[in-house]
Amino acid sequence: FVVSKLSAPTLASPLLPEDADVMLRILFPAAKGRVATMRFSASQSVLATKQQILQKLAEGASPVASDTEELDQFGLFQPYGPFTQPRWLRDDRPLSFYDLRPGAALEFKRKRTLVRSKFLSPWETIK
Q1: CB atoms within 10 A of CB 29
Q2: Which of 30, 58, 89, 92 is the most buried (most CB within 10 A)?
Q3: Is residue 74 scored above 80 in pLDDT?
């Protein structure tokens, strides 16, 4: 009779080792479908990944983001795919926490969008 110790849950995913590099396709919906393939370390946080993406965008003078002060307005979004549900990647987690495979697509977009609405009075109609 052998009793094994249960290990504490870790933040790392079994699919992506901590010391590995991963190539990800970054989609920019605000830049009319621009796509960039970039290499990231699996141990770096999502926040550091966003900073690296913004530095790359600053080199290309893209209209997506102009300043690092806007970093908190943007996020990495993993769209729906095989065996994955759509979700936002949290800034405090490392990339190895998520089940990212090499070549996976992430969207770099604004976390909140402005929705304009107009309240119609009873005598107004939509034309």
Answers
A1: 13
A2: 89
A3: yes
pTM, two decimal places: 0.68
The answer to whether 46 and 124 have CB atoms below 8 angstroms apart is: no
What's the CA gap between 104 and 87, in Å, rounded?
A: 14
Q: Which token pair is 63?
A: 């209209």
Bridge partners for 78 per DSSP: 87
In this structure, what is the dihedral angle of CA atoms 65, 68, 69, 74, given to the nearest 10 degrees? Answer: 50
Distance separating alpha carbons of residues 71 and 68, to the nearest angstrom: 5
User: pLDDT digits over 46-68, tens only?
Assistant: 999 999 988 887 776 555 555 55
User: Residue 64 in contact with residue 57, Cβ under 8 Å?
Assistant: yes
